[in-house]
Amino acid sequence: MLCTLVDCKAMELEGTLSRLQTYGTWGKGVLTTGTGAPIQVVGQALVGLQDKRAYAMSGTMASHPQFGQQFRVEAARAIVDRKATLALLQQLYAGCGEKTAKLILAHFDEQEGGAEELSRVIARRPWELENNEAICGKRLKYLGDEKPNAHTRITRTIEDRLPVGAVSHYVLEALAAWLERETRDETEDREARAWELLLADPYVPIGKLDSYGFTDAETVGSGLGFPWNHPARLACMALHAIQQVCAKGHTYITIPQFSHAVKSLELRAHPKNCLDEAINRRLPVVLDGNRIYLKNSFDAEKLVADCFAGMLSKGLPLWTGGVDALRERIARMESDIGSTLDDSQREALIGVLTSPCRLHTLTAGPGCGKTTIMEMVASLVPDVRFVAPVGIAAKVLGNRVGKYGQVAQTVHAALEATGDSYRKGRDNPLIANLIVVDEAGMQGLLICAALMNAFPLGAHLLLVGDVDQLESVEIGRVLADVVSMPEPDHHTLSVSHRSAKGILKLVESIKAGFIPAQPTDDSVRYVGFDDRAPISFDLVSRLWLEVVERKGLESVVLLFGHRNSNAANAGMNVNQANAALQNLVNPQTTENRIYGSKLRLGDRIIVKKPITLRKRLHNGTEVVYAQLVNGDVGYLQYVRKGQGGGLDSALLLMDDGREIDLPWAHFWKLDLSYAQTVHSAQGSEYEEVMFVVWGKGNEFLNRKLLTTGVSRAKKRITLMGTRADVESVAAYVPQQRQSWLPMRIQESKEYR
After folding, report:
1. Which residues contact 100 (CB under 8 A, 6 or more apart)?
2. Angstrom distance (rounded) from CA 32 to CA 717
3. Contacts from 245-249 at CB under 8 Å and sequence distance 24+?
4. Is 26 helix (H, G, I), strand (E, B) or coil?
5. Which long-range contacts (CB under 8 A, 24 or more apart) does 652-658 make?
């Protein structure tokens, strides 16, 4: 049953708050009104309030189908009892008599916020009154039980002084941790110094905190009255403009693109001044000719170009025993496995193993036998390493090459990622004669650069993938760039080996820009193609439930183009679908509810941010004991509470069989996975795929996305939407990403 609130009525209540519990950005408690009636109160506005304090709360009274009458708090303000405040000051501070208490109250009466602000200081920041002789002419000592540490003091100071809701709970925590580090040498009033730093320049933390970006700084700066033309703001605006355009996958942006992006942020700003400020302030920005890069992108492109240029020079082939002997070895392997390679497979395998060029590509559509080639490579080449950009692709490949004693890892795992860095690098390279990158189209420029930085001297690189599918969610188009060049050793497979021929014909039709009038066999199903009206989500969920009951959750995926809701896809997006499907298969109960989270015990989950888990051994050495990467899926099994009663960790059962004890600090990196975007499903395979196409073709909803989504299906694909929408998406060719990699490779070759 879908949990909703009904009979909502707006009103205001006054009373004393008790039994307050907060969970991240959400809280619950009980408000006892003047009539003595206890009322359950819930909502984000409760975060930061104090137990056993009087408040006036505005919001809506509603009846919850499971938890009964609740008051959803939209805003709350403290009710100040001046006599009680004077008594509380004398009770909580040594050296504070009635006269001193009145001086303190009179001081706050003259300040913004008045007596209410004094109440907030006593409740949230009591240390501020200890050494502030300017208020009452003497030093006081706080006698209360609470002894907050530096992090708590800084957090509360920032939260109370910023505009309400200026930053999220996670951003606030990260900002406080950074300010704590910045003020670690301060012996007194660290929170005051931390506030001064933020007040002086709210743009400084950009780039130093992953969770704090230009938008957060703009909100904070606006609330603090920061001038629009401050050099720090202009410089960070330039950085943000570049990031915005490069977020579309471009390695660099042009000067006209930069100017347009800056003007969209601030019409009064001059783009050249912004760029000059960014460069002068040594922000990570590089101007290279008429191209503007983020510095890590510029460095990565140069590194990859130099490495690829070196691989194009002639070297020792992987197989040195002669072509005839290789053909005989391949024939014996075919006999052993009971399968015969087609001509394109055989020639590709021989070509890769005998070419003196050390940079190879193997491209093909779904079902053409790329993995079969990699199986034979696993048997024929000593010291080969198999990697893939995402965990699910590595798992699929590992199941195939495992029979030859080989393993497949994510690139991050092979490089021994330790968060933002890698243990493998130039001084500690990988050991291999050949490194094979599967699903190489998904490999972004930055992770490719990290791989090249640890690449073994003299080794070969084989990039395997499909250039017609979606490119990396990161910047760059490495596989497409290499395929566009004549010098590398290129091979293409052309024969399909999958039994579901209808899916393959559909894929080929989409690549050509059209949709067949009718499915060619039972492996393809159209839903809603002949309807003039758009399909309903009720129909989508009913068909999905039928397939899940028949196949099981692990064998089915429901795909959408968009994650978030907007006016064009209302209801037909991943977030809304996940919420509705969660209530269908895992409705909320008192047993599975996790306060402050939309997730429930038993939910199907997906990892949306990379997670590296470490522990410290008895000898003090820190080791990585588990890694989760974008796209890893599984189930949320259990949550554990810590000593203080708060949530401490969550137990995850991943589809690859791993049990992960996830610390609560990483819990926000999980999301529901009853439905997925095509991007998050890329690299995986499912027996049955249901793909909802909603809206006309555009830069996001395009031919590559449709090709990739349909290609996830091994046995059946259900395309859902109007024929006009699906045909429009199939016909739309997205803009090519901007990359200078092929030209840099040529430049690097000329200098060798």
Report:
1. 89, 136, 138, 140
2. 56
3. 246/294, 246/297, 246/475, 248/699, 248/737, 249/471, 249/472, 249/474, 249/475, 249/476, 249/477, 249/737
4. strand
5. 652/605, 654/628, 655/392, 655/395, 655/554, 656/391, 656/395, 656/632, 658/626, 658/634
**Greatest Cα-to-Cα distance within the chain, rounded to the nearest angstrom:** 103
How many CA atoms are closer than 13 Å to the CA of 738, on its beta-carbon side? Answer: 18
Q: Looking at the DSSP assignment, which residues form a beta bridge with residue 719?
A: 526, 691
| Whole-prediction pTM | 0.77
Percentage of the chain lying above the pLDDT 70 cut: 96
Which residues have CB under 8 Å from 513's CB, separation 6+? 703, 730, 731, 733
CB 604 within 8 A of CB 635: yes
Quick one: pLDDT at residue 8? 54
Q: What angle do CA 232, 237, 241 make, to 5 degrees?
A: 155
Q: What is residue 645's predicted lDDT score, i.e. its pLDDT?
A: 66
Predicted local distance difference test score (pLDDT) of residue 583: 93
In this prediction, residue 130 carries a pLDDT of 78
Q: Assign residue 524 a region: left if phi > 0, alpha if psi is -120 to 50, beta otherwise? A: beta
Nearest to 558 by CA among 536, 538, 543: 543
User: Quick one: which H or E segment has residue 359?
Assistant: strand 359-363
CA torsion sign, 480 to 486 to 489 to 493?
positive
- Residue at 2: amino acid letter: L
pLDDT for 3 equals 34
Q: What is the pLDDT of residue 25?
A: 67
Beta bridge mates, 253: 292
- Spatial distance between the Cα atoms of 692 and 722, rounded to a whole number of angstroms: 10
Q: Write out pLDDT tens, residues 551-574.
A: 988 899 999 998 887 656 666 899
Collapsing DSSP to helix, strand or coil, 207 comes out as coil
Residues of the chain falling short of pLDDT 50: 1-7
Question: Coil, strand, or helix at residue 254?
Answer: strand
Element (H, E) at 469: none
- Three-state SS sequence of 444-457: CHHHHHHHHHCCCC
In the block, residue with structure tokens 């393993």: 407
Sign of CA dihedral 201, 204, 205, 207: positive
The whole-number pLDDT of residue 303 equals 98
Q: How far apart are CA 716 and CA 466, in angstroms?
A: 20
DSSP 366: T
Residue 281 CB neighbours (<10 A): 16
Task: Count other Cβ atoms within 10 Å, centred on residue 191.
Answer: 25
DSSP string, 719-739: EES-HHHHHHHHHPPPPPPP-
Please give the Cα distance from 2 to 584 (Å, whole number): 8
CA 511 – CA 592 distance, rounded (Å): 45
pLDDT at 339: 81
What is the distance between the alpha carbons of residues 571 and 456, in angstroms, rounded to a whole number? Answer: 50
E-state strands within 534-683: 556-560, 604-607, 611-616, 622-628, 633-641, 647-654, 659-663, 670-672, 675-677
What was the pLDDT predicted at 601?
A: 95
